[in-house]
């Protein structure tokens, strides 16, 4: 779901104030044709609800799944998706580019 970046960050802060477990995914690097620019965010809560976008929809499912593990374990992760990566084809990133997404728990 596309939303303004400030709306995504505000949602993450609001969810934490409400007592929800929250992770924030951020595009930290892109190469070639990437669907979303560096700095794009996806906020995810412990129940799998999310707001924002890191890939125009093509890898959000994989990022949400990884975010659940980040919330459970507390350790951040750096994820990379690209056309040379078999995972990228599985999740639909066939735009010709690559993205790196940093996922961290919000405390």
TrEMBL record:
InterPro entries: MoCofactor_Util/Proc (IPR052698), XdhC_CoxI (IPR003777). Residues 15-82 form the XdhC- CoxI domain. Pfam families: XdhC_CoxI (PF02625). This is Xanthine/CO dehydrogenase XdhC/CoxF family maturation factor.
């Amino acid at each position: 779901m596309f939303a303004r970046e400030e709306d995504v960050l505000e949602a993450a802060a609001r969810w934490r104030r409400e007592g929800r477990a929250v992770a924030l995914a951020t595009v930290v690097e892109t190469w070639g044709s990437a669907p979303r620019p560096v700095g794009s965010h996806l906020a995810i809560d412990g129940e799998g609800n999310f707001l924002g976008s890191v890939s125009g929809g093509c890898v959000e499912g994989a990022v949400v799944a990884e975010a659940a593990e980040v919330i459970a374990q507390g350790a951040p992760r750096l994820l990379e998706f690209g056309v040379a990566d078999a995972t990228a084809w599985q999740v639909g990133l066939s735009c010709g580019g690559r993205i790196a997404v940093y996922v961290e728990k919000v405390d």
